[in-house]
């Protein structure tokens, strides 16, 4: 696939923490571009991506890298959770190279830490920081990677090992379902929940998006 045919939709950083013995996650910053989707579906896609990030960010073990698919949703969530609870997620289409996504994740974490040091550990509520300059620059660089840029990235890939590939169903606890999690989510509006139900019923979610 040509670089221009690959899509990077979102990169976001989160803090995974324990609150009264329960794992939670708070959003630190993000950058997103859903302009390639149909206009009337963009807010729904936006909300579903945030929902997916929040749901997965508490279900991936610390110290692991995973690429996770969601049933009926044409995107992949690439996620790395550090041992100290700092994590980064890149959301791409199916054509985007997995290993390149993890280079983006690695660089995003490095750039973020160089700016905030350890202060992120004190953050316990969602931040509204969208498109911080350092993350926007990385997002743009990896959104349309030139052939020579992709070739240069290959040199960094030896450091990106142990990536697991799963679907979200394998991460959901017994007794839970994706539909029930979505229904309880505060990241998704009622109109978006209704859109999702109708699309699932028609088995045409991917076509609608």
Automatic annotation (TrEMBL):
Q: Which superkingdom?
A: Eukaryota
Q: Where is the signal peptide?
A: none
The UniProt record lists the Longin domain at 17-138
Q: Tell me the InterPro entries matching this sequence.
A: Longin-like_dom_sf (IPR011012), Longin_dom (IPR010908), Synaptobrevin-like (IPR001388), V_SNARE_CC (IPR042855)
Cited Pfam families: Longin (PF13774), Synaptobrevin (PF00957)
Q: Name one GO biological process term.
A: endoplasmic reticulum to Golgi vesicle-mediated transport
List each copy of the V-SNARE coiled-coil homology domain by range: 149-209
Q: Which PROSITE patterns match?
A: LONGIN, V_SNARE
Q: Which GO terms describe its molecular function?
A: SNAP receptor activity
Q: Where does the record say this protein resides?
A: Endomembrane system; Golgi apparatus, trans-Golgi network membrane
Q: Does the keyword Lipoprotein apply?
A: yes
Query: What keywords were assigned to this record?
Result: Coiled coil, Lipoprotein, Membrane, Methylation, Palmitate, Prenylation
Per the record, the major location class is membrane
**Membrane topology label:** Lipid-anchor
Gene Ontology CC terms: Golgi apparatus; membrane
Family in the record: Belongs to the synaptobrevin family.
PANTHER family given in the database record? SYNAPTOBREVIN HOMOLOG YKT6
This protein is called Synaptobrevin YKT6
Q: Which organism is it from?
A: Lygus hesperus (Western plant bug)
């Amino acid at each position: 696939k040509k670089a221009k045919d690959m899509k990077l939709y979102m990169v976001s950083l989160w803090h995974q923490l324990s609150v009264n013995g329960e794992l939670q996650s708070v959003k630190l910053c993000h950058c997103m571009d859903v302009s390639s989707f149909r206009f009337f579906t963009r807010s729904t896609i936006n909300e579903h991506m945030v929902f997916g990030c929040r749901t997965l960010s508490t279900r991936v073990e610390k110290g692991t890298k995973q690429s996770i698919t969601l049933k009926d949703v044409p995107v992949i969530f690439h996620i790395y959770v550090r041992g100290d609870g700092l994590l980064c997620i890149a959301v791409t289409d199916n054509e985007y190279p997995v290993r390149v996504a993890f280079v983006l994740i690695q660089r995003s974490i490095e750039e973020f830490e160089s700016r905030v040091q350890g202060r992120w550990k004190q953050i316990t509520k969602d931040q509204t920081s969208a498109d911080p300059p350092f993350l926007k620059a990385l997002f743009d660089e990896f959104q349309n990677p030139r052939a020579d840029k992709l070739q240069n990235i290959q040199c960094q890939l030896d450091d990106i090992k142990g990536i697991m590939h799963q679907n979200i169903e394998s991460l959901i606890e017994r007794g839970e379902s994706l539909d029930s999690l979505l229904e309880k989510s505060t990241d998704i509006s009622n109109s978006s929940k209704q859109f999702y139900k109708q699309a699932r019923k028609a088995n045409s979610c991917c076509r609608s998006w």
